[in-house]
Amino acid sequence: MFNYTFPCGGFKTHTKMTDTGITFDPPVYEQRYCAAIQILEDSRWTGEIKKVTEFGCAEMRLFPLIRRIETIEQILQVDIDKELLKTHMCRTNPFVSDFLKQRTCPLHIEVLHGSVADSTEILKNTDAVIALELIEHVYDDVLNKIPNNIFGFIQPKIALFSTPNSDFNVIFTRFNPLLPNGFRHHDHKFEWTREEFKSWCLSITEKYPNYDFTLLGVGEPPEEYKSVGFVSQIALFVRKDLLNMPLVEPLNSEPVATCETPYETLHTVDFPYYIDTRTPEDKIWAEIQYELHRCTLDEDNYDCDKCAYKIAIDELVKRLSNMGATKEIVEQLLDQHKQKVEQGNVIIEEDIEEEEENYINTECTTDGPLSETEREIENWDE
So what's the pLDDT on residue 380? Predict the structure, then answer.
């Protein structure tokens, strides 16, 4: 196991227990989604995550959050419930805003009817696998095939599982009994304790030593019940090469698909995106022009002696450093575009013609009543 903390340092959540029940703020499902997104956006590997497969996507409530990660280029939404997928697959369609403000890289979506236990060609090259509250819904025959499909066939860079923590049920049963099946949900086939979940994770890393894992959770228990752990437990598996560790064995370059029931594609969509064909220098010059314009909007930048606005080149370089701008590049672009520079400052002279035009327009505008002469001049063509 390895230690892991969420990139933002944790969540600001609140658990409240009264004599009649327990509530989580925000709801536990939102906390799970937030955990998944933070893990996908972890700077240690976010640039490596291009293709994401979510198994058990159900109503596709996580999808709107995943699709906002600009570096992700392909998302597969997979579930065994075909009718549920048909009902909610419209959620994968672009909004009007996606056409107005387009992405900077492509995004291809596929909604697939299939089982998490089946290996199929379309799953290849998946970088991240997500399965939230899924494994407790499957029977043993499917559960036993999941590790082979995900860690043997797909071989993702990261994989995320969440499942209920049955240790927490001691709190729930204070208010309501469990369902007749002995679990929280009528479709649960099991609910694991923290030790049982850890044991399952260890069995995976023993069989697939290229992976290490860490245990997390969401849904804090009340202060007096800290010993029961989180209401929902999470396992994050990370391939060792992403942890700067050597792989124990070579990755299978040609994994063999063993799909007993072929996946069915129900819906595909490609999001609009904008390809910026400008050179890096063109982009920097566009930002320089923007910064020079901004400079003229602040009177503090006005030099009365020169009757012009000015901004230091060093200040420009500082503002554009995130674009890879250096002082040498900025100076070359300023010279190339014949921008006046004096003593390390860019001089932005006022446009006299524009000022005069504005003055004339201002002089010809009045809010008061027109004189007889003015009315005669205005109505000369009547």
Answer: 46
